[in-house]
Amino acid sequence: MQVTKQELENRTVAVQVEVEPEQVNRTFEKVYRQLSKYVEVPGFRPGKAPIGLLRQALREDYVRERVLEQIIRDTMNSALQEAQVEPYGAPPRLDIQQLEEGKPMLYSLQVPLEPSVELGEYRGLKVTRYTPVVTDEDVTNEIESRRRQASRFERVDREAQTGDVVFVTIVPQIEGEPNPLSTRRNLVHLTEEMQEHPLGKVILGMKAGETKEETVEFPPNDPDAELRGKTVRLQVTVHSVSEMKLPTDEELLKQMQVESMDALRERIRQSLTEELSHYARTASDASMKKAVLESAKVQISPIILEARAHNSLTNLEENLRRRGYTLEDYARTYGMTEEQFESYWFRRTTDNLLYGLILKAIREREGITLTDEERQQVMEQYNLSEEDAAESEEAEELMEDRLVEKTLQFLWDVAEVTEEEFRIQSQREQTDNEE
Fold it and tell me: 3-state class of 114 per DSSP?
């Protein structure tokens, strides 16, 4: 076996392997003999047929696949040892160049090596710490939102207006199709957004008992997959119109089990502050993460990045499947196509991996470790024994998480921090940025 090695960029090594024809032939013969036990060749007992007849009886691609598996199993580790390289973080990428009887087998391995981190100046990073601020107006808006959620609807004998809920029967027929589609029976809430939809425009102004026919263009992202992006002749019949009745202060207090409006305002303020605090921390963490990623250069094999992103996405898909969802469904909640989401997920996974590598390099340079007291605190918090802490992968991950927290606290302590208020509008902007 001949082995050559070539250094590639981004901490990747190419190992070229040539396996002698004699070993290739022996492996082909061995595989044919193994498979002959399960193949009936007229005139011969199982396992006794000549190789020539076995070649005719067995599919070539199946035999070749078994030979490939055997030779890789027999030679790959030896080739890596001879090249003095050890894969890090992901299996080598295999490329088969030649595999035929009577000829040397040629294959190459692209081997990911341990990433390298070149730290820049990480002391004095310019970061922003966000502080949640809830205003009186925020509290009032939230109370009115809760009031609308607690509203009831009463039927009215008038034309449908903004805010009404209308019970309709819809018979759609796609332009150019001979027959209408199945009848839809829907409750349509005439929000301002719905009034911009073709169906909302048809319903607005109709009364109970009225029927209207109109041809409209459905948007390409419409929730109704059958009508999405189509020109449709709609027959719409209104059965009832109901208007929103907002609860009075007394009714709202009773429903929310609060004694006074002042008490309700205080409860709402606390709730909003807790929610906003979460988003403020997320925004602060994002500021630090961006600064850390910009402070260092990481050389890492794309093989590792692709493997991590693939495994992460596979785990996500499996979790979604168990809950009855698809990746396409999940991507839609982000306002993305499945392809766009996969690209986003790759970038996100890559950033998280690089971030972790840089933080690890910083803590090693600064000598940041857990004290005995801190380790004990983690063990007590998660009810771990000394044996768990020494042997459990979960315990190791918990200790690692605590080390990350300690490293980040160090970076905040030595950073150049700008304080900034974080408001309800900031929350919406932060959510948009995350998506």
Answer: coil
Residue 166 lies in a domain: yes
Residue 207 backbone zone (phi > 0: left; psi -120 to 50: alpha; other: beta): beta
- Contact call for residues 19 and 104 (beta carbons, < 8 A): yes
Span 148-204, pLDDT tens digits: 889 889 999 999 999 999 999 999 999 999 999 999 999 999 999 999 999 999 999
- Are 355 and 292 in contact, with CB atoms under 8 Å apart? yes
The residue out of 245, 267, 290 marking a domain boundary is 245
Residues 169, 284 share a domain: no
Are 338 and 226 within one domain?
no
Q: What is the pLDDT of residues 285-341, one digit of tens each?
A: 999 999 999 999 999 999 999 999 999 999 999 999 999 999 999 999 888 999 999
Does the residue 31 lie in any domain?
Answer: yes
52 DSSP assignment: H
Residue 109 lies in a domain: yes
- Residue 154 Cα to chain centre, angstroms: 43
Three-class DSSP category at 44: coil
Rounded-to-integer distance, Cα 26 and Cα 304, Å: 35
3-state secondary structure at position 123: coil
What is the Rg, in whole angstroms, of the alpha carbon atoms belonging to the chain? Answer: 33
